[in-house]
Each structure stands twice: as structure tokens, then as C-alpha cells.
TrEMBL record:
This is Isoprenyl transferase. Coiled coil: none annotated. It is an enzyme of class 2 (transferase). Substrate binds at residues 38-42, 55, 83-85, 89, 208, 214-216. Catalyzes the condensation of isopentenyl diphosphate (IPP) with allylic pyrophosphates generating different type of terpenoids.
Length: 259
């Protein structure tokens, strides 16, 4: 069994190096979104009753992913960590998940890391202590030179659009703009300027693990022209070779931007 595993690992390493060479000079996405799915199923597949072990193992994978993104030249990474729908999960699981998310934010913001952490979502649906940890991570990493890492926590795509419209209306109300004038002047980019990701490029590539092929409300506005890569691998088992496959598929596509 050990010999077979060693041979398999050697084959994967050779394939991984081949993929990496093939990507030299290829079109690389500036912004990658990741729907990190399959933590609970991974835990159950190996016989663990406490699915928090799956979430913890998935959290441990994040630094690896960000390192791969750095190596590839990706400048923005958005991680879908907790949707508003997930808030209906059993309380013990939700409590453990919040602690894991806080630990991730602390880890990404510790000295020696290069990434700029940004929280995106509806803070009012989260525990105050989680909101405080996310805000502190943002503050601690504000001036770092590396990639921007968006942590989508308490996030819902429809909620984001509603919040953007609400923010837009409030801004124009302060200016004294009449509703009629706003209706006449409103353009798509005006809403985009009030999204959680304002100032960032839209995602070029979204990766979803675990075999599911849907967005689940992830970046609904921003993904109008995004390429998607779906893999059957559960998130805790996601490897560099899987990431490179996603980049290879992306680089091979002719992006038509809706045309």
C-alpha cells in the first residue's frame, strides 16, 4: 500500500510540474473566487461524526491555496466561507464554524503574511466577536503589499445587490438628487461602485469543489462574464495539481464576455 501511494504521488508530481510549465506565459486570472465546498462530506466520508473536523481541515488548506495564487500571479482571491443560508445550520456546528473563521482571519493577518484581508458580507447577521476579529484583520493588513483576500462571511449575492442599491440611494439622497433624476441617470457601473468588491476587478475564474455545479448566490453581479471550473474533489483534498488544472482550463478558453 505504501509503495503504491509513493508511486501515485510521484506521478502526480510529474504531472504537476508539466502543468506548471505549460502555464508559463499563459493567460492567468487576476481575480479568482473559490467556493470551498465539501468539508462536511469529506468528514463523513472518512467516518468522522463531528463535521467540524472537515471545516478545520478545509481551513488549513487556505494558506496553501493563497501560496499557489501568489506563485501564479493572482492579485485578488475571494473565498466563500459562510453564506447567509449556512446560518440556519445546527448551533453547535455554526459555533465551531465561526471559531474556525476567526482563526483563519487571525492566521492570515499575523506578522510575516503578505496578504491584505477584507471581510465582505452582512456583519449584522454575525456574532459581534466574529465581526470584531474580521475588522481587526482588515486593519492589521491594510498596508501589506500582497494579494487582496476577500473573506465572504455571512455573504449572500442577492443581499449584496440589495445593499448596493440601498447605499446608492442613500448617497444620492444626501446629495439632494431627486428620484426622477436618479432614474434618468442610473447606469450599471453606479451599482457596481457600491458592491462589497468595489474597486476590484470582477472575478475572471470561479472554482467550486465537491462536484456541485451551481453558484449558491456567490458574487451574482460580478460573475456575469466569469469562467467557471467545477471539480469533484472535496475542498480538504484540493491539491496544487487541481488548482493548476483550473488555471490550465481557464487559459485555454477564448473569453467572449457575453458576446
Amino acid at each position: 500500500m505504501g509503495a503504491r501511494s509513493a508511486i501515485r504521488d510521484a506521478i502526480v508530481q510529474v504531472y504537476e510540474r508539466r502543468l506548471a510549465r505549460a502555464l508559463v506565459g499563459a493567460d492567468i486570472p487576476r481575480h479568482v473566487g473559490v467556493i470551498m465546498d465539501g468539508n462536511r462530506r469529506w468528514a463523513r466520508a472518512i467516518g468522522l461524526e463531528d463535521v467540524a473536523h472537515g471545516h478545520r481541515r478545509g481551513a488549513d488548506k487556505i494558506v496553501d491555496l493563497l501560496g499557489w495564487c501568489d506563485d501564479a500571479g493572482v492579485s485578488v482571491v475571494t473565498l466563500f466561507m459562510l453564506s447567509t443560508d449556512n446560518l440556519s445550520r445546527p448551533q453547535p456546528e455554526l459555533h465551531a464554524l465561526m471559531q474556525i473563521i476567526e482563526d483563519v482571519a487571525v492566521d492570515l493577518s499575523r506578522p510575516g503574511r503578505r496578504w491584505q484581508v477584507r471581510a465582505m458580507g452582512a456583519p449584522e447577521v454575525l456574532p459581534p466577536e466574529t465581526v470584531a476579529v474580521l475588522k481587526q484583520a482588515e486593519e492589521d493588513t491594510r498596508d501589506r503589499p500582497g494579494a487582496t483576500v476577500n473573506l465572504a462571511v455571512g455573504y449572500g449575492g442577492r443581499q449584496e445587490i440589495a445593499d448596493a442599491v440601498r447605499s446608492l440611494l442613500a448617497e444620492h439622497a444626501e446629495r439632494g438628487t431627486s428620484l426622477e433624476d436618479l432614474v434618468q441617470a442610473l447606469e450599471v457601473e453606479h451599482i457596481a461602485e457600491h458592491l462589497y468588491t468595489r474597486g476590484q476587478p470582477d472575478p475572471d475564474l470561479v472554482i467550486r469543489t465537491s462536484g456541485e455545479q451551481r453558484l449558491s448566490g456567490f458574487l451574482l453581479w460580478q460573475t456575469a462574464n466569469t469562467e467557471f471550473h467545477f471539480t469533484d474533489v472535496y475542498w480538504p483534498d484540493f491539491r496544487r495539481v487541481d488548482f493548476l488544472r483550473a488555471l490550465r482550463d481557464y487559459s485555454a478558453r477564448h473569453r467572449r464576455f457575453g458576446s
